[in-house]
């Protein structure tokens, strides 16, 4: 049976690591196209100026418009060609990072997240939107970024909510990888760019599952301590561990270990207006609980996850993600979106239908609300 694992060529993380950006640019050439929102550039401007001077490289600022659209990608490709840029840098949040992936197309790419809110920085995929911000398509490239550089000083000075949201995204990693492993379902790492599914399909590796488990264990051990450090804008060993967990362990775990019900139900929840004001990872924390209900996970495991979520401030019930009331018809719509043929919910080790999803959402919501009430 074919197995696959994918990862960045290099991952570096540390305080003031951005000062070394010029070193990595130099491995490709003399200049780089910098894809970043103006606000993010301003936040790290002194470090960018220092690294350019130290290593004698040039950063070509792109005037990124904030949306990962086909039109913006084409404009930036043209700009890179005009300036003969040796590599592409995606600096900032998800949109800048995904745009850089689309511009680089798997070649000479440096990713520099300024928040640790998701596990997207290490992956070989991106999400395209229309210029108006509506979903367009997914894009996959032949390889993951060449370098993923994490400046933990920058991350620590971002709002704590981003770090906590990243923990919510990371929380699902082990449970989805476990389900995918038990069902021998294919993973994204097995679908290289340009291959047909029948040719590229592969299951995850034991290494990916082990990383996913370490991801969960580190969240339990260091999550609350890391949140406290971020609240004070300080870098501590626990904070460093959680940044690595949110970005590297979760990134490798989801892409090479697989997704299952939690992310599919998250996608379904986007049908509910109230959820639109919450971050991806905040919603995934709740849908992880929904997946555990689907699996009939042990009471001990459910309580462990609930306790973790409450300790760092992650959602455990529908009101926590802006849904104070919901009809059965609305939940049926959520379940229908979660159960479409191409969704990852079908990687669960048993058949899942819409009725099961509706029931699991209702029960997870009830369990979460009761758990919070007991703690008050």
TrEMBL record:
Superkingdom of origin organism: Bacteria
CC cofactor: Zn(2+)
Pathway: Polyol metabolism; glycerol fermentation; glycerone phosphate from glycerol (oxidative route): step 1/2
GO CC terms, sorted: cytosol
This protein's UniProt keywords: Metal-binding, NAD, Oxidoreductase, Zinc
Binding site for glycerol: 119, 169, 263, 280
Residues in Alcohol dehydrogenase iron-type/glycerol dehydrogenase GldA domain copies: 8-152
Binding-site residues, NAD(+): 94-98, 123, 129
EC code(s) of this entry: 1.1.1.6
Co-factor binding details: Binds 1 zinc ion per subunit.
GO MF term list: glycerol dehydrogenase (NAD+) activity; metal ion binding
Catalytic activity: glycerol + NAD(+) = dihydroxyacetone + NADH + H(+)
Primary enzyme class: oxidoreductase
Xref: PANTHER family: GLYCEROL DEHYDROGENASE (PTHR43616), GLYCEROL DEHYDROGENASE 1 (PTHR43616:SF5)
Entries under NCBIfam families matching the protein: PRK09423.1 (NF006941)
Family of the protein in this entry: Belongs to the iron-containing alcohol dehydrogenase family.
Protein name, per record: Glycerol dehydrogenase
Species lineage: Bacteria, Bacillati, Bacillota, Bacilli, Bacillales
